[in-house]
Amino acid sequence: MNYTVSLVGAGPGDPELLTVRALKRIEGADVVLADDLIDPRVLALVKGRLLRVGKRGGCISTDQHFIHALMIKEARAGHRVVRLKGGDPFVFGRGGEEVDALREAGLEVEVVSGLTSGIAGPAAVGIPVTDRRASPGVILVTGHPGEGRAEPDWAALARTGLTLVIYMGVARAPDITAKLLAAGLKPDLPAAIVSAAHTAQQRHAVTTLAGLPDCIAREGLKSPALLVIGEVAAHAAAADIERLVSSA
Ligand code: SAH
Fold this sequence. Notes:
The chain is of the alpha/beta class. It has 9 helices and 10 strands. The protein has helices at 20-28, 40-43, 64-76, 95-104, 117-124, 154-160, 173-182, 212-219, 235-247, and strands at 5-9, 31-34, 49-52, 81-85, 109-112, 138-142, 163-167, 190-195, 203-208, 225-229. The chain is elongated and about 55 Å long. 43% of the residues are buried. The structure holds S-adenosyl-L-homocysteine. S-adenosyl-L-homocysteine binds next to helix 5, strand 8 and strand 10. It is an enzyme of class 2 (transferase).
């Protein structure tokens, strides 16, 4: 099938983490509408017109409807349109809303999955998000549900005992930490922050749940970042030790 619009996951940063299909779509596009968090090395692969439609830096508009209208206009003009989104297009990327809008406009839409930062980011610093010795599962959750939308039930999430990977959680870390502690999670439960994973700015820190807000402030760790809460977070330190040993 010849799709008019492809929603393409750009992965967390490093272009080597693009899927083969993502690379083909990016290179073959007449026009690429790119979000903020796309690594400059991935943007450099664009051969057609590049339109930055993110909320930060060089934005044309923050309005989601504007983005929908632009995609529809370009597709109807007969252009091969790629909507390039960080990580995976269907994980906190409004991909679902965009697919609905495009289908309502009668367009064929393809979704090209990407590596989501919530899994590839922790992995970049040696954290497996599941590990049968410590956590039989993982919850991917947003720390910032958006204006007027329901907050996740942090107490219920805490009770699952599963690894929590929190996207968009840096600014709200003190509040989230307090809620998880109040729900009974141990203050010394391992926690990690992974910032700008798989980019040139990658940084991380390992701490405890109780120490998380201070650690973020002290280390100056900034968005985009993932918070990883659970026993598996302790593996990050082990990864560092391994690197030290191997470079010694
Ligand atoms: N669709 C994206 C998520 C978009 S929401 C995905 O699947 O990864 C944006 C949030 O994703 C950021 O606030 C941050 O929490 C996370 N994020 C995206 N890229 C990241 C990266 N390279 N390193 C760390 N966190 C990242």
